[in-house]
Structures are given as structure tokens and as C-alpha cells.
Model the fold of this input.
Amino acid sequence: MLSLLQSAGTAPPPPPPAPAAPPTAAGLELWIYFHVLIVVLLTVDLLVLHRKAHEVRFREALWESLGWIGVSLAFGAWIWHRYGAAGGFEWLTGYAIEKALSADNLFVFVLIFAYFKVPAAYQHRVLYYGILGAVLMRGAFIGAGNALVQRFEWILYLFGALLIWTAWKLLRAGEISVEPEKNPALRLFRRLVPATTELHGQRFWVREGGKLLATPLVLVLVIVETTDIVFAVDSIPAIFGIVTAQPRAFLIYSSNIFAILGLRALYFLLAGLMQRMRYLRVGLAVILGFIGVKMIVETPKWVHVDPLVSCGTVLAILFVAGLASWWAGPAAVGRADPHPAAPGGGSSPGPLPGAVPGRPDGH
Done:
């Protein structure tokens, strides 16, 4: 019959080609382009938006936060277009989780700046260089984590168990008082590097009597960087539990980096509203527990949680936690030390409710 149709010139048209599958690898060129984009964004932030040291007000922080979120979502839309809906949903979920964890971490940054009595005009500079260090450390951690997962898939069980344990610890957490003097990295730094107890504007280093001295801003930067290492122990396993689409390493890394790039603006936006975020920690505990269980049941292929379900669950939990926090009103905040420290250190301010004990110095 087909031969008759062909001979009559009425053969059916060939079927349309199948749509091309999204790429599963991120080439070197894409990695280079991504880092060029990050360098451009950070350069504009430091040399254009914050060329002169000044106190970042709420209105400025709001517009900057919206700008960072807009750039991030635009990049997420490109991820969706290039890697499909699964990659787009997982990227967005990873970005939302890291953003929420970053907001929770701001509790500690507020107390660190209060401890060292860093003026508001200089805080952005410290956070800027803290972000640069965080980008490098997150890249190293994610690269190592991805290599371990590819070689030893069973390590996902350990990641899941770690997240469940972290969720339980968050739910049981009491009050915290930041004690940088007990930070081993800071103690080692002070032993090896001469430092002054006086601020010299926004400078990190000064020369006095022929000697190069670190200012208190360097000490604060050391605390911020070591604190971020502790935070990464929670956030990086969480995002490995969410992002399974390929190219996995690039999706994890880019969502993580875009979330922490806006941390400085988010800090100045939320610094005065910390006491209103009383249930954020509970929401994060539920999210980390959900991801931990998801990792454990998905690794042996028992259950597959659709990326849309994961994304919707995380966003719903964050929405409920935020709504409950707003409805309940501000929590009581511990009083600051009646004998505040000099810029170089001293007694820590009062405890902040809901923070994890010991997190500035380790678990």
C-alpha cells in the first residue's frame, strides 16, 4: 500500500524530529562566562554603588536586594531555557534554600559587628570581601562534594543524616552569645599577625612605627570567613539533596553563588527586623529535615520527588514561617553588654534568641 501511495506521489510526510534533549554538561567556556559575569557584578557593586563608604539605609538596601533578586531570577530563567523545567525548578529551589539560610545567618553577623563595634558605614566593605572569600570556599566545597558523590554515591546517605541531625539541632537551639575570643582561627591569627585595636576608617591594614598592623576590620573578616565555613556545612549538603539534574555541579554552584551575592544588601535590609524572624529557624529546620529524608529515600530509587513538588514544598514552608513570624510579632532580644567592647574586641553583646549555640566557632 505504501509503495502505491509513493508511486502516486501522496506519501505521508515524515514525522517531525524529536526535540533535542537539554545539555547534560557545562563546558569550560560556560564556566568562564559565568565567572566573568560574577566579577562584573561585584565590580559594579564595589566601584559604582559603594565607591564611598556610607551607611546603607533601608531604602537603598531594598532596591539593591530587589536588583540582586531580579538578576538572579533572570539567570534562573536562562537555566530553565537551557536545561529544561527540571533544571529550572531545582535551580530555583536551591537558590531559595540558600537565600533563606543566608537570612538566618545574618543573626550571627549582626552580633559580630556589634561585638567589634564596627560602624555601619564600614560594614558593607567587610561583607563584600567576605563574599569574595565565600565564593572561593563554596567553589572548593561544591567541587569536592560533587567529586565524592560521583565516586561514592552512598555518601548521599551521610548528607541526608547530617541534614536531619542539623534540623533537630535547630529545633532544640537555645540562645547564643557571640564569643569571637574563643574562635581558634582568630586566636591563631592574633598570635601570628600584629594588630591594632583602633579603627582606621575602612582600611584593613595600617603601618605604625614601621610595622604593618591589621585593623579590627581584618579580625572581623576572619570571623566572617570562618563562620561561613560552618554555615556551608549545612547549606551545601542541602542543595545536593535538591539538585539532581545535569549539569549538577554548575546548577548547584551557580544557585549558591547568586544567593550569597545579595547577602550584603539583604543584611542591611533585615538587620533591623531580626527580632521579627522568630519562626524562620523552625521553617529552616523543617526544610532541612524534608531534604534529608528526600535524599535518603531517593538515593536507592525507592521514591522520586518531582522537582516541582520540592520547589513548592520549600517555598510553602518559607511562606508559612514568614507569615507566622509576622503574625506573632517581634521576639524579645537579649540586652547588650552594659560594658561594650572597644573596636578590637571585648565583652560580647547579649544573647540572640533562636540562634544555634556555638555556630560562630563551630558545631
Summary: Residues 72-328 form one domain. The beta strands are 205-208, 211-214. DSSP finds eleven helices and two strands in the chain. The longest strand covers residues 205-208.
